[in-house]
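Figure S4 source data
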Amino acid sequence: MLDRKNIRNFSIIAHIDHGKSTLADRMLEITHTIEKRKMMAQVLDSMELERERGITIKMQPVRMEYEYQGHPYVLNLIDTPGHIDFSYEVSRALKAVEGSILLVDATQGVQAQTLTTLEMARESGLTIIPVVSKIDSPIARTEEVKAEVAQLLDCNINEVLAVSGKTGEGVEEVLRAVIEKIEPPQEETETPRTDLGEESPRALVFDFQYSTHRGVIVYVRMFNGEVKKNDILLFSAANEKFIALEVGIFHPDQVPQDSLKAGEIGYIVTGIKQPGIASVGDTVTSFKRPSLALPGYMNPAPVVWASVYPEGQDDFNLLKQALGRLRLTDASLSYEEETSGSLGRGFRCGFLGMLHLEIITERLHREFDLDMIIATPSITYEVEYLNGEKKMIYSPALFPDYGSYKSVAEPWVKAKIITPPEYVGNIMTLLYEHEGEVGASELFGENRNATEVDMPLRELMRGFFDKLKSASSGYASLSYKITGMRPADVARLDILVAEEPVVAFTRVVSRKRIQEEAEDAVEKLHNILPRQMFVVKIQSQALGRIISSRSLSAMRKDVTDYLYGGDITRKMKLLEKQKRGKKKMKARGKGKVNIPHEVFLKMMKQ
């Protein structure tokens, strides 16, 4: 029988591309969790998209067995994403464990996102094991980075371990440190018991997935009691009962077990096939003898909104089903139906950030073979109208006309930028262009500078991260959190094609940059829009007037091609007839411009 004292639950937290998945691979090898012949890179990254990009998108738990000083131990690892967009996934993992490995790349040092994740881990009261990775790299600054980490955690430099996920050097020491330093799971003392003296089970849902045949499979951390197959269980928050069709552990595939006991991490097959019942942070307990719900997680709040439309309206129901399926596996995705005059029926979707938007649209395309039109991503604005009414605006197309509102407020972020001192000048120029307010700045480590900045979320989305990497030759790192609403000086910019506004191109921009944005949008559309049978006007409109305009010349068939010799008036008559025909075609309503899917995609890209 497994003793709770021999269980260790831990996660790996780090910045993106610091080697979390590679370290996890070596741990799986050393503990013989996976046979060498079945071993492959990024074992815990199950999505094809994760392997292509080399990043973790969806966290994956795994159970390893390891013998130390003659005693068998069970090590439950939850591999977590490192990108800022998926910090919510990290927060879920941290609630289910007692300790965490803080992994820092020896070639890059402590990054801004590392600080954010570390703060989350400290708030959760986790034991932190500092580890420096990629020590085999020829450009590794191992001792310098170890000193940085020691300074950050206020610990002795000898406590910072060094590993190479590539060669496996130092990985055994990390496993031993996990056993020695991380506390075993503690028994919850506030659990109500039944009259029979039995302990009521309590399990925290930290993630879930959807199976076509078995329904929702919840990933749980058991805090009290025991859950067995065929138990009648209850979701506390949803107040929905279900039967445990199967319980088991991750090894790393799902392996059925007789039961899950307190302290263990595993899964429960619910058989539920309706969306919206299972939710992250809910508590699974007994239906007959329910216990108090465990403290839940924060609800993921979308920060970026974009409208998603099927390329053909025949695919609307398929898109609806696809979003419902993704919602079952990604709790942070939100969506609701909307209708556009020019694009038809679609959905307004909420995302955690631009990478999250990119990942979801790519999954819709790959997994469901959907071609979509994505309207320009936006953020939420709070508009106060002239009559004093306040309203939240999620879509640029719904932003009120100029002169019909009193004031606008928008979300701001507090960002932390870490960079070598020689790039500070370039970054200050960039911050000025993006309306950043520079706060405290201090030396961080031996050769880096940490700067705090307040800026609008709108500006952060305007390609700021890519420009920051360019300005710092790739050395700068960025983390941010939403701080609240502030007054905004913005206006709606409409793009008109053949004097008809195209909703997908509508955006909300800063009034300081409205002329520049208007001219850029018109010029870009003029260059990529295919020519029509008649002259097409491309215009941008804002602040109640046309700001920029270009004309796209008509496609012209040479109607005089068969003529040879003769008077010039013969050609003139044919050309005039062609001109009158085009005018008549446009007047009869056949002059509608069909904008191809590729044009929408090119306009969306920076």
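Figure S5 source data
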Amino acid sequence: MQFFKQRRKQTNKENVPAMEREHKQPEAVVLSADITQNIQTLQTIYENCCDVVFRSFRIGGEVNATILYIDGLVNVEQLNIAVLPSLMTKQAAEATTLASFLKESLPVSSLTTVQTVAECIEQLSSGSCVLLIDKQPEAVALSIAKWEKRSLEEPTGEGVIRGPREGFTESISTNLSLLRRKLKSPKLKTKAKTFGTYTQTTVVVTYIDGLASETLLEEVEVRLSRIDVDGIFETSYIEELIEDNPYSLFPQVINTERPDVVAANLLEGRVAILQDGTPFALIVPASFYSLLQSSEDYYQRHAISTMIRWLRYLFLLVSLLLPSLYVAVLTFHQEMVPTTLLLTMAASRELIPFPALVEALIMEIVFEALREAGVRLPKQAGAAVSIVGALVIGQAAVQAGIVSAPMIMVVALTGIASFTIPRYAAGIALRMLRFPMILLAGSLGLLGVMLGLLLILIHMATLRSFGVPYLSPMAPMQWEEMKDVLVRVPLWKQNKRPRLTGTKNRTRQAPNQKPDPLEGDDQLSKGGQS
């Protein structure tokens, strides 16, 4: 808790961002009762904007009015069929007051009164129409937004065998509706904010009232309030601006495309950050072990999920240490290898002109290049290029005497092991750490490998994610929360939520949830006898 208090002391009113002072909205002027003046002001602002439409007409054939909208953001069909004809009828002219007619007779779901030019710009950018009326010192925003958006699809980077197949899209309203379908309680709170001087990107902070700690919510608010940039296009921008240690290779924020993952983390007391224009949501705080968990761990039987988790931990070590151990053993510790295997490896390396260190670095760099090429190429050609390139280059390199066959196997096993890590950000961090580990192994042998591991562990132990230790609940040890780390205990044993930033409402289910079929069997047998 002391961490949050220290962070709050550092933020004060004098710390107003420079960009906020420099980029004061010049359009923040009050609308005039003269419609001509309002139109001239907005036309000046939207000069050389061919997609901004000014449509002038008379309400009921008597009152001058102009409706503004941005082509492509507005449902033009609804505007032409429902809105404009309703405003041009005689009923509009005979109405007692224009305001009452708009509220009672206009077929629009939402009406908002705007009083400044800046509010008009905000409504136009959000896809609303702005209705300017003569002799009225205010305008009316009509919510008839409609723009193209992608349909729901399964996330390609987080596929599961069993579980929901829907993923977030680039529409924040769609994403919030997907969350509402998972969490139907009104305690799911959503707070909208706008970031970016020019992009005006909508960002929504979501949490469950009564589960998320007040200290965590306040810390999220403080960090977001410090953001003052010209534009935000993806949640990675926000991630870089709110994480605890920006120089660390390890991700300190969870990013996901799956609504079920966000909902499950919200039920554990975490906070999610969604952004308009991207399907990726951020979840804070994060721990190292949460990055190694998949949503499918909770959709399979607990014994199977536990076995798969141990397999991930094993291949995590393989991905990080296998090339460095191979280099260390061949360079400094040949006595550790059985004689028969050592003779085989020596025969394969007889014509290789490079030491094991250079050989490993060459193959790792080539493998990373092939992987990157497979990602950037079109899907139809990406997989073929990766597989064919690996086969052709590997075979040619062995025949040319540049690398040995055992090194090809080591690099291939390392690449396969790195694919078992569920989170791409965690996997790429281990891929980057593999190179300094190889250099330490080639310089100091197994001593260098142990030194590298100690440095990594020390760094991870000092990391925090919104005040939560990165290696929690193992460091510091919290036995109650180990039920969902190295193993995945049955759901009927997970009675408590993890202790993230407090102990608020830790009970997640009633006790004695273990299934007991014997009682039901007794009742059935009695019913059969009767």
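Residues 52 and 70 are 4 Å apart (CA to CA). Residues 156-286 form one domain.
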